[in-house]
Design a protein that fits this description.
globular, alpha+beta, eight-stranded mixed β-sheet, seven-stranded mixed β-sheet, 37 helices
């Protein structure tokens, strides 16, 4: 051991202990002792079943939500149940696909589980200080390829699936990502399995096999991953920036890698790829370039002993990680690049190459500039762009950090008017950007603005909330390359070295001759002709890896000069001081005294435990084979949070409340569902509702942004037939003021014609972009078939096109007249405060008296027993290479017992499904299985996204797997079953990291109107006693091919290489479904799955 150091600069809210050690081989390890992990087994009784440990999973069965599925934030794991709202059909372009920052994420095993028990996960991460900048030019993508290959077995654990299978069997998951200058691997696992997991993990860096017979399969996985982003606008724009970097510059490297760069080209050049992988590993994966982070419940001495035993053998001696500061700026400034957009959008990005600011993290000069340029309040650049009708969205800040340069990007979503203004191509908007920068230079660095940012960062640090274990360790592992060791826990919050000179220097470098402009536009052909015909020196090109055309040109000298000399317009100004900064951090639970809420919650939990012990949850089983659930003990029941209380239940308003005494944070979460039958009565009503929300968002922007900066967040979503969801969360002091402002703004909404035109155009564009992601397209079609009330986006779009400003103004009173509000207020807010706020919001929104029971329930279509249905359609994007199969198996109405059985099936199936279909058969990069709950009806999905195979082949392979898995269950022994049961329980008992997670789970029960707040506790009781035979019977009844009671619906989204499948006859015994939305008219509906709010709220 070379050195050992305690790290003490941490949040006052952080009870963990930290020690940084350096091993003799140079490997740096941060050891983290979490006392809660060490204590958790003392507080929870061990289950009676052999080998079963408390655990939990998020699969308690929330309904599915089309809004979230179409938000652009795709969850590839497929294991989290989706909340099934009615869906807006809006697909958000902000968070399109991964890979926008030179990052290649290897979703080897990415299941994420959040629950509300008492168990926390252990975790470890190791970051190697090399990435694709280090790739040889003759093998571009080699770093990413090696990252994949390290998962494929080691000398001690040669089985390719050993690592993932071990983690799955112990409630864990793994993942990895390759970036420009580092590659990070991480896992999480049940705490009692940390050491054996670490032992397997260490072999990645000691003796990986890099098997010759695995090379072909895993390079196919890399190629499939690349194929998955070919139609991503974010990734295409990134690759254009790489391709057009200076000749020979590191930024020109193709970091993704694909079959051409890793197989075909090397073969033509006579390169032995396996030998190069081993050489790269030997030369670059050196101990002194590695940061290891280990989080566990063991004391620091034990963790240190483990790390020394397991990682001291990692080879070292290659010297520090490479640095590339001498490479020079990657781009030539003063140039415009235009590329075609896949989606209907016009996005302009202005990039400035800042010097590398590594080591200057206490100054935060880049964050200061990003805060001002990206501001959305009055006087901001965005407000000025909106006032001219030129843009709808803007973001600013450093998007790429490397030892070469820091890239400060200003991204502007243009309207049609903004695209065409001035000389076209969005150049008028760029002129306004330079006016804003001129204003900043003229005003000089503003200490008060920096101090505001410092105060906000200090609040976040002081009241820091816990992260996901794997996110925590992987973040620290890479942060150790960036921060001094003693600052690694606080560095991102440090604003204690105000440097106005550095701010001035950075601003002076943000000039017209230094800017690089990238326009990604659906109107590429028109823009291309404009550039070729209007800008001297323009030329066409073709990006070779993604294979798309582009055009580039130097920006005219006179245009650059006009931008440089521009004076700020009158409506551009520095932001106002932020009145939303909280100053009251008192905890309401403390104000109520020792006999207040904390004790009341403990008493409530004890009472829940006694009640559970006396009654037990409802029995249930398969085919009449009921199993009596083991009652939860009082101590075990106390591991689950107590439910909210029903405070108000009158005409027009139902209020749930819980005063937090567990997280002890000055934060509140306020969730409101605003239901009005008028909001979804027809496609036109759906269009009006959605447009109304967007107009409200736009009207709130300048004020609400100040709250956002101050740590007080809001969002308003359209949940179709269910209504509108308004959610606020953050520091509690100013939350009531923001909530009242939103309610009064909605009730009194007045819209200017310019704002109406701009917002409507953006919403129309979003509707046109619906289902451009093939995976989400399949899910959308499934929900279209299953939901009893669901207006397709294609029905809403023509109605939206016809709407005028007066239509919205006339619609608002009708919407509010039939309103019912159901709300949950949880956190640092008393019952009296919650009741007063809820009544104020109800009154502000018109005080409608609609009864809660008058809201119609949402119901699910009941597929026929023994059916096998197929809906297939072409991918919306005609250039899409990927195809998708989503095989949905509908099971039964949700009961605790059946949910436990289905979750157990999913636990047993998940890893074999991934290993068979993805690792062994290489059907596609994205393969996952997961449970679904659609309006209270349980189901299971297997999803494969493939660039190589058509949906018919994918579906057949899924069926073959499902058939083989029945035999796997038949041959499974009790020991393996108990191990998997323990893993699932461990997942289901995962402790909430933040109050928001507890609120989200409680809100799910409110929003779905099940009010089953104790469902998780009850399911854990059932899981402890269900038998392997019951699982086999459940599988045979609902999921096994050939079962007469099986209900299957397959969704095929067909890519361009397989369009012939659309004309092929259906396989024997399969019923084609041409219009999935018609199923609800042909088949019966499942009963409404509603709970008793009054009984649950007592």
């Amino acid at each position: 051991m070379v050195s050992s150091e305690q790290l003490t600069l941490k949040s006052p809210n952080d009870a963990k202990l930290y020690r940084l050690v350096v091993l003799d081989n140079g490997l740096q390890a941060l050891l983290v002792h979490d006392p809660e992990i060490g204590q958790q087994h003392q507080h929870i009784e061990q289950p009676a079943q052999p080998g079963a440990a408390p655990g939990r999973d998020a699969l308690e069965g929330s309904d599915e939500d089309v809004d979230s599925l179409l938000s652009g934030d795709e969850d590839e794991s497929g294991t989290e149940d989706e909340d099934d709202g009615s869906g807006s059909g809006e697909e958000d372009v902000e968070d399109e696909e991964e890979g926008s920052d030179h990052e290649h994420v290897h979703h080897h095993r990415g299941r994420q589980h959040h629950a509300g028990g008492a168990v926390k996960k252990a975790s470890a991460a190791l970051s190697v200080g090399v990435g694709h900048f280090t790739d040889p030019w003759s093998l571009q993508g080699l770093s990413h390829y090696l990252e994949h290959m390290l998962f494929m077995g080691s000398e001690k654990y040669p089985d390719e699936n050993d690592y993932d299978a071990f983690l799955t069997a112990h409630g864990g998951a793994s993942n990895a990502c390759t970036e420009e200058e580092c590659t990070t691997f991480h896992f999480d696992v049940k705490p009692d399995a940390l050491r054996p997991a670490l032992h397997r993990f260490a072999q990645f860096f000691l003796a990986p096999l890099v098997k010759a017979d695995a090379l072909g399969r895993e390079v196919q996985a890399v190629d499939n991953e690349f194929a998955g982003v070919l139609q991503s606008d974010a990734c295409r724009a990134l690759q254009l920036r790489c391709h057009t970097a200076r000749e020979g510059h590191l930024f020109r490297k193709f970091g993704w890698g694909n079959k051409k760069s890793l197989v075909d080209d090397p073969a033509a050049a006579g390169i032995d790829v396996r030998a190069e992988l081993l050489k790269y590993y030997s030369e670059q994966y050196s101990a002194e370039r590695m940061n290891l982070v280990v989080l566990g419940g063991e004391d620091l001495d034990t963790l240190q002993q483990w790390v020394a035993e397991l990682f001291s053998g990692v080879p070292g001696g290659r010297g520090p990680r490479p640095q590339y500061g001498s490479a020079g700026p990657p781009y030539e400034g003063g140039r415009l690049y235009v590329l075609p957009a896949v989606r209907d959008e016009h996005r302009l990005t202005a990039t400035f190459q800042l010097p590398c600011l590594n080591g200057k993290y206490r100054k935060k000069a880049d964050e200061y500039l990003g805060h001002l340029v990206g501001h959305e309040g009055a006087g901001s650049l965005l407000s000025a762009l909106k006032a001219r009708g030129w843009a709808t969205e803007l973001s600013a800040g450093v998007g790429d950090q490397s030892s070469v340069a820091w890239l400060f990007e200003v991204s502007i979503t243009l309207t049609e008017a903004g695209l065409a203004a001035g000389r076209g191509c969005g150049l008028a908007a760029v002129g306004l950007l330079f006016e804003y920068l001129a204003m900043l230079r003229g005003a000089g660095p503003q200490r008060w603005a920096y101090d505001e940012l410092a105060a906000i960062a200090q609040m976040r640090f002081r009241f820091q909330e816990e992260e996901d274990a794997a996110d925590f360790t992987s973040g620290l592992a890479s942060d150790l390359f960036f921060y001094q060791p003693q600052h690694v826990l606080a560095g991102q919050y440090m604003f204690d070295d105000w440097d106005p000179q550095l701010v001035t220097e950075l601003l002076e470098g943000m000039t017209p001759d230094a800017v690089r402009l990238d326009l990604c536009t659906r109107g590429f052909e028109e823009a291309k002709q404009s550039v070729l015909g209007g800008l001297a020196g323009a030329q066409e090109g073709r990006e070779p890896w993604f294979d798309f055309p582009y055009v580039e040109a130097p920006l005219p000298t006179e245009l650059q000069q006009s931008w440089a000399a521009a004076a700020p317009s009158a409506d551009i100004a520095l932001p106002q001081r932020n009145d939303f900064l909280p100053t009251d951090f008192e905890l309401r639970c403390e104000q109520q005294g020792a006999s207040g809420p904390a004790q009341q919650e403990q008493q409530q939990q004890q009472q829940d435990g006694k009640q559970a012990a006396a009654d037990g949850p409802a029995n249930g089983g398969t085919n009449g084979a009921a199993a009596a659930a083991a009652p939860a003990s009082a101590a075990e029941s106390a591991a689950f949070p107590s439910p909210p209380t029903l405070l108000l239940d009158g005409p027009g308003l139902r209020l749930w409340h819980k005063l937090d005494s567990s997280f002890r944070q000055p934060r509140t979460n306020a969730y409101l569902r605003l239901h009005s039958a008028a909001g979804y009565a027809s496609p036109r009503a759906a269009a009006l509702s959605h447009l109304l929300i967007k107009l409200l968002d736009d009207a709130l922007c300048e004020t609400a942004y100040l709250a956002e900066v101050a740590g007080l967040h809001y969002g308003i979503w359209w949940e179709g037939a269910a209504g509108l969801d308004l959610k606020l969360h953050g520091f509690s002091h100013k939350l009531p003021a923001l909530a009242r402002f939103i309610a009064t703004s909605l009730a009194g909404l007045r819209v200017e014609p310019e704002a109406f035109a701009r917002v409507k155009e953006a919403l129309l564009r979003n509707y046109r972009n619906v289902n451009m992601n093939v995976g989400k397209h399949a899910t959308y079609q499934r929900l279209l078939a299953l939901k009893d009330r669901f207006w397709h986006a294609d029905e809403v779009l023509p109605q939206l096109e016809k709407l005028q400003l007066g239509d919205v103004q006339d619609f608002l009173p009708t919407l509010l007249a039939g309103l019912h509000i159901e709300a949950l207020l949880h956190g640092n807010i008393t019952a009296q405060e919650a009741e007063a706020l809820a009544q104020q919001l109800h009154a502000a929104l018109g005080g409608s008296q609609l009864a809660a029971d008058a809201r119609p329930p949402e119901r699910c279509v009941q597929l026929t027993k023994g059916c096998s249905m197929l809906h297939r359609c072409a991918a919306k994007n005609p250039e899409e290479e990927n195809s998708v199969v989503e095989a949905y198996l509908q099971c039964c109405a949700d009961t605790v017992a059946d949910r436990a059985l289905l979750d157990m099936v999913e636990q047993l199936m998940y890893e074999p499904c991934f290993d068979t279909l993805r690792t062994k058969e290489q059907l596609g990069y994205s393969v996952h299985s997961g449970t679904r709950r659609t309006h209270g009806v349980l189901g299971l999905c297997v999803v494969v996204v493939s660039g190589a195979h058509g949906p018919a082949h994918l579906d057949a392979r899924v069926e073959a797997f499902l058939g083989a898995f029945q035999q796997t269950l038949a041959g499974m022994g009790e020991e393996e079953f108990e191990k998997q049961r323990a893993a699932l329980l461990a997942l289901k008992m995962m402790k909430d990291r933040a109050m928001l997670e507890e609120s989200d789970r409680a809100w799910d029960k409110v929003a779905t109107r099940s009010y089953a707040f104790h469902a998780l506790r009850d399911e854990c009781a059932h899981l402890r006693v269900l038998s392997l035979q019951q699982v086999r019977d459940f599988y045979a009844t609902y999921l096994a091919p050939g079962s007469p009671t099986r209900r299957k619906l397959s969704l095929h989204i067909v890519g361009k290489a397989h369009t012939a499948e659309l004309a092929e006859p259906a396989p024997e015994g399969v019923q084609l479904v041409e219009r999935p939305q018609e199923l609800g008219k042909q088949l019966p509906l499942w009963p409404a799955m509603l709970g008793d709010a009054r009984a649950a709220g007592r």
